Amino acid sequence: MPAVVVAVAVMALFALGYIYYSRYLARKVYALDADFVTPAHELADGVDYVPTNKHVLFGHHFTSVAGAAPIVGPAIAVVWGWVPALLWIVLGTIFAAGAHDFGALAVSVRHKAKNIGTLASEVISKRSRILFLLIIFFLLTLVNAVFAVVIGNLFVAFPGAVVPIFLEIPLAIGIGQFIYRTRSPALVPSIIGVITLYFFIWVGDNVPIEIDGLASAIGMEPRNVWVVIMFAYTFIACRLPVWLLLQPRDYINSHQLFIALGVTFLGVLIGLDRIVAPAFNTELPEGQPSIFPFLFITIACGAISGFHSLVSSGTTSKQLAKETDARYVAYMGSLGEGSLALASVLAVSAGVTAALNEEWGVLYADYATASEGAVGNFVNGIAHFASNLGVEFQLATTFAAVVVVSFAATTMDTGVRLQRYVVQEIAQIAGWTRLARSLLGATAVAVAIPLALALMPSGDQNGFAFGTLWRLFGTTNQLTGGLALAVIAVWVTQKRRNPLAAVIPMAFLLVMTVWALIVQVQEFAEADEWWVLVPLDLVILVLSLWLVFEAAVRTRTLVRERREEALAGGDGSASSDAETGADTTGDGQQ
């Protein structure tokens, strides 16, 4: 199968999803109102609540959700065949992620930009708040630990990426200061930033930074030193105003999406690469994870991700200038994530074998081999596509590594910031006033726990966080997505609108993730780290089932109330935020 045919077909489906399905969601399900005063204006404080141009906000939102997961997940899942992986990416992006990301943002904006855990209290029940916050706490812990290890592995494997990644930080701060002080549009400065970043990529390729000597001197593995450095950086970065570092770096990185996709699709077209992976892989050895439910767990971001609801309701909702911008920012953001997942599938099914001159079946002999080589396969595949355009292969690998690290580091920035919010909220509920009010203490907790997980030793050569916790991360991530959809569905039902856009993907995700959690309990019981894994799995399972029960009870109550209203002669069509004659699609909002 020519890879370019697959790329064009998928992108055409994504375009149709945005034109038609997102418009339906904006008008009929979430009823966006251009005149609604968003929390970014109502609660503006210049730190977290900052009205932001929708294109700049798209950059923040997309690069916050587009970490390593939409690359790693699909790069592993192709082990079951490229067709099932791509089917879930397409259907999951258009119908699940679109409704989920968009809905979490819309509901949060209508509730003063509260996070999805707090919204559960107002929409479902008071108990739901603490249940959801605990699940979010576990998810963010896993996200930050896994992404730190991915970044550490990439810095070790591709030391040329170190210079551009770290020089991007002062570059972004300078751009952020310029935009904020002069009130200038962000487009031109961010393009200059991208050009400068790519000069740094050339510098980094010629001046690779390796820390083997330092690591040996302090008795640590080089990867673990990078992990510590990344958490030290996020400890500082998550406490800075969003306009100073997060927004300008996100906007720079958002351009990288389009550049990386352009390199992928042009490289595929010019090189006429063909997909060499099997459509359905029927030659996996016995004892491998089953495609049901684990395909839908392995591909988390890139189809649907609960982490996106945390970003939508945690940081993006605090910066949305117009409610109608939500369609562009959130739904388009999910399509960007799906496009990155598509690039990952093409890289590991068509590009990597040409780059390494290796048989695909050797690279994907089993699930463990696929997991171990996922990031490297993606980097080499993208580098091959770039080499089709005349870029020297070694330089192209540095470029691809910078793309992955940039997205993963931005997600860590946002993830630690969100974890700090969650820690403070949990501390407030528990009555730990000192921790709830301490920015330093909450940030220390948000950093210390995932750092400990990332550094935990394991017999797995990929490390505890990446090798052993990847599927638990995926399960928890998808489970959070299902639970966020439950909150959205209840809210939509309250507003007397059709909740099926949220209910159908919610039901599918909850079945797959609960199934996976149950299967993993037995598997984790046999692992060396069972004393961490089994309790984590069981706690997450119990919390999720409890929250599903709470949502079901609330939904049943709402349905009964509607029936009673109908019997009493009411038309059941009232809504506290009914549609107006204003533009409700986001079309024409510049």
Structural key phrases:
590 residues; Hydantoin permease; 74% helix
List the helices and strands and how they pair.
Blueprint: H1 3-29, H2 39-42, H3 54-65, H4 69-77, H5 82-109, H6 116-123, H7 126-157, H8 162-182, H9 187-206, H10 212-218, H11 222-237, H12 246-271, H13 291-298, H14 306-314, H15 325-356, H16 360-363, H17 367-388, H18 393-430, H19 433-437, H20 439-455, H21 464-468, H22 470-494, H23 500-525, H24 530-567
Helix pairs in contact: 1-5, 1-15, 3-12, 3-15, 4-15, 4-17, 5-14, 5-15, 5-22, 5-23, 6-7, 6-22, 7-11, 7-18, 7-20, 7-22, 7-24, 8-9, 8-12, 9-12, 9-18, 11-18, 11-20, 12-15, 12-17, 12-18, 13-22, 13-23, 14-22, 15-17, 17-18, 18-20, 22-23, 22-24, 23-24
What does this structure look like?
With 590 residues, the protein is mainly alpha-helical. It has one domain (3-567): Hydantoin permease (Orthogonal Bundle), CATH 1.10.4160. Helix content is 74%, strand content 0%. It is built from 24 helices and no strands. It is globular, with a radius of gyration of 23 Å. The model is unreliable at 572-582 (pLDDT under 50).
